[in-house]
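Handout, section B. The chain below has 326 residues.
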Amino acid sequence: MKPSRAAWIAGVAAAIALPFVYRDPYHLHILVLILIWSFAYTSWSIMGRFGLVSLGHGGFMGVGAYVTALLWNHLGVSPWIGIPLAMAAAGLLAVVVGYPCFRFRITGHYFVLVTLALSGIVLQVITATRDYTGGSLGYTPNRTQGSQLLALQFDDKLTWYLIALFIWLSGLLIWRAIDRSMARHAMEAISEDEDAAAAAGVNVTAEKLKITVVSALMTALAGALYCQYQMFISPDTVSGISVSLQMVFAAIVGGLYVSLGPTVGAVITILLAETLRIGFGTNAVGWDNLVYGVLLVLFIIFLPKGILGSLTERLKPQRARSYRAS
């Protein structure tokens, strides 16, 4: 067995065993948040690593969270059905926005602006339909009077930790599957030169759209799970430009081209937010976004491959020398 695979197995086993050994509720809560947001950041990096910089993922996450909650509260639709419907809605939204952009070669900063508009539109719709969504005051899914499993509402944080761990691992597997597929080579060719890729037989529009839809579906799932875990959502926490920027920051800081990079970014963002909340309370509202912006500029200038990406890059020469010596 390869050392890297053995390390992965040992790490997963340790992660599964951790909550059974150490069950502090607050620390389990932080771990659940890190895992859910890691999945969301991984979904953004699936697009971002190929040059598709999106500021609309806050919109996809908001659709996933609010559609699931609204279906449960108003129609009594179980989240087991509501979540796939919310993901389908986010996927449809990705097609509606993405297809014209890719078909008519809207790229670069123009694509960023389109996705920024998407995020703003979703935020405005949530705020404007306050009679149904609660608007800026937030929205709370109804507590179930029956089966917790059917309603996907669990009081035990251990259960949520295991669910979040499974989702996080699924995100890494999806990232790995794309990384090893032909889609990766096609998207790398497209990111280098669309015309050359098209001349070589790559369907540029279809390849871009596939990656975008996969990313949107994963982001919507993250939003729905966050809603079910927190049992409260608001436009500021699951939608809008601030959430999109948070995803960009975490993926770039952790390492955009490494599968565990977004996870490192999630650890940084969640711990930063908790440190500011505990240390400064309500006086630090909005400070995390300010810190994200400053750190993002610094990392882009001095550490463009992120923390984990830079560490991996530095270890490569050492591995090569060890291999030649053996």
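Note. The two ends are 18 Å apart (CA to CA). Compare this with the example in section A.
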